[in-house]
């Protein structure tokens, strides 16, 4: 486990850091191109897209990773191709459903839910890419389970580069100052890059299956096992995503109720979510890679009944995550002004980077804890904790934002992250004790 995990983590971290560097540079350019208000509007559109993506994926990425890892861990590699096919059929059903829902209800969502008609065009554009995104999730889960993450990493890098190029091209033809068309240009780039990503991922998958042909092995109850993993995770993720989207929708409204103008509320929200948070989460690439790659490793160890390996791996991961994230927190706090000025050409985000930096050890380590829980089959518990956390966040936003404005929003982020981490860590400790 150790050698493969280190190799794949290094590979995935390197590609993720490269993509994040590209993304941060592009985000800085985008903020200058469409302004803080445009960034705020784009973040609102993406919060709705996150909800629809949750419906499109419906737990299938993790289900594909776990089911394929179970087949490999049980010595039934000949059934892997069948497992992927079942997952693709599932993802196609939910991806097309999500696209139809978003396309049909774009106007009510834009006018009534978001409260800004300028988002309708962007929502309809994003709907077109949901089936492709869903299918790509299955193939990415397959490569993760097989330990060939370099293939999905390569595709994601090409996707990121194509996204940057396409958005720049579309924005070049969009009129300056027209926030609606600028936002639509960005979402068009996202949709086009999602389509390209699936085409490349599918081509690599076909080549991979030819190199590792299916044998005669068959696995019983494959569909039932897939649904048993995907559906509970899907239902819980629907609830969490809906509550999280509701929270993001309530933020600008709460800020307006506190006395800020509509554009000022969008700008404040955009600075925190579109400028400060990307910088805060940038160093997390390493731990995000670990949290993804540890899932098949722990699943295979669990299938073999290797409790000693599970306990040792979890303990080491948590310890190293805390050390790494603490160092990142110190650097972010110390260099907040430099980072904001270097990336965005303004010190607008520096105050919020400094305010959020002490929360970094909790945020980062929680990613690894979540990955460990999923690898040990505790995905429903993990999502249950996230649902509670999202519901609490939405309630606090509704109650406190009109009183405390942006200061209250920072406090709410702290409360959400601390409660989520405490509950997740307690559950992981309880699960690990079973392997004593």
From TrEMBL:
GO cellular component, one term: plasma membrane
Organismal lineage: Bacteria, Bacillati, Bacillota, Clostridia, Eubacteriales
Bilayer-crossing regions: 7-29, 41-63, 83-103, 123-142, 154-172, 184-206, 321-346
Taxonomic superkingdom: Bacteria
PANTHER family named in the record: LIPID II FLIPPASE MURJ, PST FAMILY PREDICTED COLANIC ACID TRANSPORTER
Protein's membrane topology: Multi-pass membrane protein
Name by which UniProt lists this protein: Oligosaccharide flippase family protein
Organism encoding this protein: Candidatus Scatomorpha intestinavium
Record's subcellular location: Cell membrane
Pfam families with a match to the protein in the record: Polysacc_synt
Assigned keywords, A-Z: Cell membrane, Membrane, Transmembrane, Transmembrane helix
Major subcellular site: membrane
């Amino acid at each position: 486990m150790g050698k493969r995990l280190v190799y794949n983590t290094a590979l995935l971290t390197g590609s993720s850091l490269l993509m994040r560097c590209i993304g941060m540079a592009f985000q800085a350019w985008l903020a200058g191109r469409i302004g803080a208000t445009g960034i705020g509007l784009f973040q609102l559109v993406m919060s709705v897209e996150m909800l629809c993506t949750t419906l499109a994926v419906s737990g299938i990425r993790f289900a594909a990773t776990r089911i394929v890892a179970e087949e490999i861990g049980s010595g039934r590699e000949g059934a892997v191709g069948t497992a992927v096919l079942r997952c693709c059929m599932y993802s196609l059903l939910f991806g097309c459903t999500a696209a139809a829902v978003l396309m049909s209800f774009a106007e009510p969502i834009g006018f009534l839910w978001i409260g800004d008609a300028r988002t309708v065009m962007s929502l309809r554009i994003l709907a077109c890419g949901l089936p492709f995104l869903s299918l790509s999730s299955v193939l990415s889960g397959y490569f993760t389970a097989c330990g060939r993450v370099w293939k999905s990493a390569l595709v994601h890098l090409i996707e990121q580069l194509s996204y940057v190029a396409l958005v720049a091209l579309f924005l070049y033809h969009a009129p300056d100052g027209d926030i609606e068309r600028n936002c639509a240009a960005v979402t068009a780039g996202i949709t086009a890059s999602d389509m390209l990503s699936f085409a490349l991922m599918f081509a690599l998958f076909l080549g991979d299956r030819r190199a590792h042909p299916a044998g005669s092995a068959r696995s019983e109850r494959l569909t039932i096992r897939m649904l048993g993993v995907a559906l509970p995770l899907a239902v819980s993720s629907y609830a969490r995503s809906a509550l999280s989207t509701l929270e993001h929708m309530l933020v600008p409204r709460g800020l307006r109720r506190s006395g800020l103008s509509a554009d000022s509320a969008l700008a404040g929200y955009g600075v925190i979510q579109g400028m400060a948070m990307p910088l805060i989460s940038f160093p997390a690439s390493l731990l995000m890679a670990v949290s993804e790659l540890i899932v098949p490793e722990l699943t295979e160890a669990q299938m073999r009944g290797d409790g000693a390996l599970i306990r040792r791996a979890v303990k080491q991961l948590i310890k190293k995550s805390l050390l790494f994230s603490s160092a990142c927190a110190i650097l972010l706090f110390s260099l907040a002004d430099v980072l904001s000025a270097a990336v965005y050409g303004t010190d607008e985000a520096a105050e919020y980077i400094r305010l959020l930096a002490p929360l970094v050890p909790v945020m980062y380590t929680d990613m690894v804890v979540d990955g460990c829980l999923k690898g040990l089959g505790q995905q429903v518990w993990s999502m249950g904790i996230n649902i509670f956390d999202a519901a609490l966040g939405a309630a606090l936003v509704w109650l406190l934002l009109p009183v405390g404005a942006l200061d209250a929003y920072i406090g709410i982020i702290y409360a959400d992250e601390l409660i989520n981490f405490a509950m997740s860590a307690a559950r992981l400790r309880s699960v690990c004790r079973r392997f004593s």
